[in-house]
Write a structure and sequence with these properties.
The chain is mostly beta strands. The chain is built from two helices and ten strands, in the order H-H-E-E-E-E-E-E-E-E-E-E. A five-stranded mixed beta sheet has the order 1-5-6-8-9, with no helix packed on it. It has a five-stranded antiparallel beta sheet with strand order 2-7-4-3-10, with no helix packed on it. Strand 5 and strand 6 (97-105) form a beta hairpin.
């Protein structure tokens, strides 16, 4: 046994095992690193809603890819938010998975109400993505596939 520990074969096996361990530890993760973006929405009142009226627009998002490759995401059907409030998105991109968390600040109810928020995502490469949109303030969500190609249009209803 002592002769084997001092042999060339032992050192060759030890080197191969050490190289395999280093290769296993140095292997990159399959999903890539997380990139986070925070976007403030451009607020508007597209359906001329008034305080106390029934909101006509169903809670949904629409996605449009412009010719320059930027993605325009529009949130429809916001309720209880005024022009002094804010709607923002916390976007996490890991590989081809996009998770969007909507954040709503209602604002002052003596100000004019809004029902739409528009966001421009100009940091996505042309490819196919899996998108998850979550609005914890309204307990609504949706999932879809996003294809970042010019003239791509999609409208998705948010579900409970």
């Amino acid at each position: 046994m002592v002769d084997f520990l001092n042999s060339t074969e032992f050192y060759v096996y030890a080197t191969v095992v050490a190289a395999a361990i280093v290769a296993l530890l140095a292997r990159p993760s399959s999903r890539g690193e997380a990139r986070q973006h925070l976007l403030a929405g451009d607020l508007s009142n597209n359906s001329n809603c008034q305080w106390g009226s029934v909101n006509i627009a169903q809670p949904s998002i629409s996605i449009q890819v412009r010719d320059d490759g930027a993605v325009v995401l529009t949130r429809h059907g916001l309720e209880g938010v005024s022009i002094s409030g804010a709607v923002s998105l916390a976007i996490t991109v890991i590989g081809f998975d996009i998770t969007i968390e909507e954040r709503i600040v209602p604002g002052n109810n003596i100000d004019d109400p809004i029902d739409t928020a528009t966001f421009v995502l100009d940091f996505l490469a042309p490819d196919r993505y899996h998108l998850k949109y979550n609005s914890s303030a309204t307990s609504r969500f949706t999932t879809t596939t996003l294809l970042v190609r010019p003239e791509f249009n999609k409208k998705i209803t948010l579900t409970n």
